[in-house]
Amino acid sequence: MSTIGKIFLLLETIVCFGPVFLLLMLGIIVWPLATIGLVIDGDFENVLGFLPVLLLVVGGALGMASLVAMLLRIISPETKLLSPFKIRIFMVFGVISILAYGYPIVQGKLGLHWAIIILPLLATTHIYWLGHSYLHGSTVNK
Fold first, then answer.
1. 81 lies in a domain?
2. I want to staple 93 with a disulfide (CB 3.0 to 4.6 A). Which of 43, 62, 108, 114 is the partner?
3. Mean pLDDT across the stretch 66-70?
């Protein structure tokens, strides 16, 4: 891949995954604080209500890990952070997290929230397509 192609790929990633990344960071910060607050108050029944948020955060973190591994592999083919199997599995968790986050948004008014759902999915499809030879064991571009 040419240098300009790598720059555009990084720009695409920043634009498409920026909002989702900020939401992930917010979830990483808020979930433990909210859970600790509920435990301190003795409200153990509502702690389980935060379990879906934890699953979204974990799935999003795994998805981001696969994104970074795949981007590094595309930009620098000799770099290998994760195996192709792990990248595919983590990518599935990330896509499920995006869809699970977006489902309630789609039920109500969309507004500009559609971008939070659609852009990462389109970018994931593009990055998967760019790295398909590595993910499926082809000897091309290795």
1. yes
2. 62
3. 93
List C-alpha distances in Å: 33 to 54, 91, 109.
12, 27, 29
Nearest 5°: phi and psi at 138?
A: -70, 150
Q: Which domain holds residue 33?
A: 3-135
Cα angle, residue 19 at apex, residues 15 and 22 outer, rounded to 5° = 125
> Would residue 141 be called left, alpha or beta, if left means φ above 0 and alpha means ψ between -120 and 50 degrees?
left
Quick one: angle between helices 114-130 and 84-107, nearest 10? 160
Which pair of structure tokens corresponds to residue 51? 């379990």
Domain count, the chain: 1
Q: Is this model's pTM higher than 0.85 or not?
A: no
**Mean pLDDT across the stretch 48-59?**
82
Q: Whose CA is closest to 54, among 77, 79, 34?
A: 34
SS3 assignment, position 58: helix
